[in-house]
Design a protein that fits this description.
Blueprint (H helix, E strand, L loop, with lengths): L3 H22 L43 E8 L5 E3 L4 E2 L8 E7 L4 H17 L4 E7 L5 H10 L8 E2 L5 H4 L7 E5 L4 E7 L7 H11 L1
Parallel strand pairs: 4-5, 5-6
Antiparallel strand pairs: 1-8, 2-3, 2-6, 4-7, 7-8
Length: 213
């Protein structure tokens, strides 16, 4: 009995730690699709019907983007300024009419360096007048270091954007880098993923393509 008690205490502590970690990640509040009944009582799936569209509430935060957390309803992204390569002011309003993957990163962020090539490949494959990866550097040390970072990462398709005030993460209430928000054509946040992800994976593309429908 004496040997069992410390083990039980250790297990309880581990469970508490795991619970805290999960709560910090946030809860997935995407709606679950309902399975319609076909005539005769069979489900639509059993009757050979196709999967419902994204608008029907199908979850797309699986696999490589399982950490993506949907908003219960899209919320307007705060309008904060950042700059393009010509140092022209931009805001999220600039991109209305497009689905945007808004990524906040910094040169001092190791995980940002790891995921940057996948963002670049995603932009190369899906970038259009309907979709853009908007990767914004939040470095306070100016534009040159951010440009050097992107060059070292082999970036070829992403446009350059920077927020030298380093306030972007505060405006969108993101903790840590990288932070990525999926934004609809009206400038509203669909959901977000905190931390790095494989953004050119089939899972990520399925998530984005659902927002484009």
């Amino acid at each position: 009995m004496r040997g069992t008690l410390p083990a039980l205490v250790l297990l309880a502590a581990s469970a508490l730690t795991a619970g805290v970690y999960v709560s910090r990640q946030g809860h997935d509040n995407a709606p679950t699709a309902k399975v319609a009944a076909a005539p005769g009582g069979a489900t639509a799936a059993a009757a050979g019907a196709t999967s419902p569209p994204a608008s029907a509430g199908v979850r797309h935060n699986t696999g490589k983007v399982a950490a993506f957390v949907y908003k219960s309803a899209p919320e307007a992204v705060p309008t904060f300024p950042f700059f393009d390569s010509a140092q022209q002011t931009k805001t999220i309003e600039t991109f209305k009419g497009k689905v945007v993957l808004l990524n906040l990163w910094a040169t001092w962020c190791g995980p940002c360096r790891e995921e940057m090539p996948s963002l670049d490949r995603l932009q190369k494959e899906l970038g259009s007048d309907k979709f853009e990866v908007v990767a914004v550097s939040v470095d306070k040390n100016g534009f040159d270091k951010a440009r050097e970072f992107m060059k070292d990462a082999g970036v070829a398709s992403l446009n350059f954007y920077a927020d030298p005030s380093s306030r972007a993460a505060h405006h969108v209430k993101a903790v840590g880098m990288p932070a990525t928000l999926l934004v609809d054509e009206q400038g509203r946040e669909i959901g977000r993923l905190l931390g790095p992800a494989e953004w050119d994976s089939s899972d990520a593309k399925r998530l984005i393509e659902a927002a484009l429908r």
